[in-house]
Design brief:
By secondary structure, the protein is an alpha/beta fold. It is about 45% helix and about 15% strand.
């Protein structure tokens, strides 16, 4: 019997790469995202390439009403979710705390923290009913260390770190694994979003070293979900070779 994975933020980057990796392993997929055309395109490609069933759900994880409307109305078949990858997340802006834009703060907190909670609350109850499941939260090295001008983003990812630990304790009696993966520098849309479309600033982030790719993270997630039933790989920090901490890089310019 095929398993089912739900991946949030699946229209690009780590989410899309993870969708491909799990589809190649035979998972049926529920994919969520805000960009309808992009989401449906990803869903069609995956279905055609891997011969799996894909359910695309267009909503913004920041909206509790949209999350509940989409996930509370799943059919009984689609509610049998084996793996939840809470991938939707972002960084916006990079300013000192006294200069930060409140709209940026709210967007990060609403997406990275509240969105994760809205989705997890519903899906964890589906998993509880079945007595099994696996939740993987996409955290960050920013959830382990704080860096200059990263204040609110780091705080939101520290929250993910704490929530992952709390969820693991809360869901332990129900046979649900809870884990996180904390990437360092991964070349995706991350920096382009952080710098609000400034391609030059975004590209400069990855100059002088080889960053991780979305596929690197997807491969790690696949390894985690394919571990034996009695094994929970609970917390993974993954960095490119050139990165020693959240702000220490060995670059060759």
């Amino acid at each position: 019997m095929k398993k089912t994975a739900l991946i949030t933020g699946a229209t690009s980057g780590i989410g899309e790469a993870t969708a491909h990796r799990l589809a190649a392993s035979g998972y049926n997929l529920i994919l969520t995202g805000r960009r309808e055309d992009r989401l449906k395109s990803v869903a069609h490609r995956l279905s055609d390439k891997y011969g799996i069933e894909v359910l695309p759900l267009v909503f913004d994880v920041r909206s509790r009403e949209e999350v509940e409307r989409a996930l509370a109305n799943l059919s009984a078949e689609w509610r049998e979710i084996d793996v939840l990858v809470n991938n939707a997340g972002l960084a916006v802006g990079m300013s000192r705390i006294n200069e930060g834009e409140i709209e940026d703060w709210e967007r990060m907190i609403d997406t990275n923290v509240k969105g994760l909670l809205y989705v997890s609350r519903i899906v964890s109850n589906y998993m509880k009913e079945r007595g099994r499941g696996h939740i993987i939260n996409i955290c960050s090295i920013a959830g382990k260390e704080v860096y200059l001008n990263g204040n609110v983003y780091c705080a939101s990812k520290h929250a993910v770190d704490a929530l992952t630990k709390g969820m693991r304790l809360d869901l332990l009696p129900y046979g649900i694994k809870v884990a996180q993966i904390c990437p360092g520098a991964v070349e995706t849309e991350f920096s382009l979003v952080r710098f609000k479309g400034d391609r030059e600033r975004a590209d400069a982030v990855y100059k002088g070293f080889t960053p991780l790719t979305a596929d690197d993270i997807a491969d790690t997630i696949a390894y985690m979900v394919n571990a034996p039933a009695h094994v929970n790989i609970a917390d993974v920090l993954i960095l490119p070779l050139a990165q020693g901490s959240s702000s220490a890089f060995e670059k060759k310019l």
